[in-house]
Amino acid sequence: MPFTPAEPMPVFRLINEPVFPSPESAEADGLLAIGGDLHPTRLVAAYSMGIFPWYAEGDTILWWSPSPRLVLFPSEFHLPKRLQRFLKTGAFTVSADTAFASVVAGCATTSGRRKNGTWITGEMQQAYIRLHELGFAHSIECWRDGQLAGGLYGVGLDRVFFGESMFSRITNASKVALVALVEQALHLGITLIDCQMTTDHLLRFGARELSRKAFQAQLETGIDHCRPQGKWHLSRQ
Question: What span, in angstroms and rounded, lies between the C-alpha atoms of 103 and 97?
Answer without folding.
Answer: 9
